Amino acid sequence: QVQLVESGGGLVQAGGSLRLSCAAPRSIFSSNGMGWYRQNPGKQRELVAGITLTGITKYADSVKDRFTISRDNSKNTVYLQMNSLKPEDTAVYYCYAGPGYNPHFWGRGTQVTVSS
Fold it and tell me: What percent of the chain has a predicted confidence (pLDDT) above 70?
C-alpha cells in the first residue's frame, strides 16, 4: 500500500497562513503528478491544486492568487502554501499522487479549520 504522509493542518484565524506537506515514496514521487484535494461532509472531493512531473500547476478558481503548490524533488515532498485563508477553506485536505492531475493514490487527510 502506497503511503502518502501529510502534515501541517490545524486551526488558524481568517487571514492567516498554513503550509501543508506531503511526503511520498521516491518511486511514486518521481513518476507522478501530485497535489491536493479537499472535502467537507456531504460534499464531493474537489481539486485544490496539482503539479505535474514537469512542474505545470493547476488551481481551483477559489484559491488562485492565495495558494501556491510546489514540489521538492530532493525530499520527495509536495507543499501547499495557503495564504489569506478564509472560513470557506475549512475542509479535510487530501494529498494525492497520480498521472497528471488524476489521483491514483491518496493520503489519509489533514484537517484545516479557519475561524472567522
Answer: 100
